[in-house]
Amino acid sequence: RKNIINNPIIRIEYPIIFAENEYFVDLVDRVLPLDAFAKFAGYYLSEGSSTATKSNYHVCVYQTPEKSIVHQAIKTTFDEMGYNYWTYFYRENDADSFTISNKDLALFMRKHFKHGSHHKHIPSWLKNVPNKYLALLLKALIEGDGSRRKTKLESYSYSSVSKQLVDDIQEIAVRCGFSTRMYLTLPSKTGFGKSM
Question: Which of 103, 104, 164, 166 has the most crowded Cβ, counting Cβ within 10 A?
Fold first, then answer.
C-alpha cells in the first residue's frame, strides 16, 4: 500500500482523510492528495469510462489533442495521480485515451461515481469537502463537457444525460459561489443541461 502521509490522520468521512493540514482520499491501494483526485474525478465524470472484467480493469479519459490546454491539463492530472498510465489515439472518438490499468481504482470509480453517461454522479462524501477542492472538481467538469458562455460575467454551461450528475453539479456550483439554472434540451439524447 502506497501511503504518502504520516500519522496522525483524521478520517473525516470515508474515504476522506485529513492530515498534515491537507485532505486526502483513500483509494484502497494508495492514499492520494484530494486536489489531484478532485480534478481526476471531474475529467472521469465528463470524459471518462471504466472497465471491470475478470482480466481487464481500466479507467480511461478521452480528449482530442486539438483542445491542447485541456489535453495538457488531463496529462498533468494523470501525472499527479501517480499511477502508471499510457495514451493512445482512439479513432472512434477522434481523441487520445489516457488509460490507467488498476483493479482497485477501476472498482473504486465504478462504485462511487458509477459508469455509463446516464448513471454517473458525484458521491456525497466528495460534495462535502472544502470549497477549494470543489472548485477544482467543477473546473475539470467544465473543461470536459462544459463551455464558457459569451457574456460579460463569468458564466458557463454544462450538459449531461445524467440528471443526477446535473443536480450534483448545481449543488457544488452554488457552494462555489455561482447562481445556477437547469434546463431540459430535446431530443432526449442531448440530455439535461446545466447553466451557471
Answer: 166
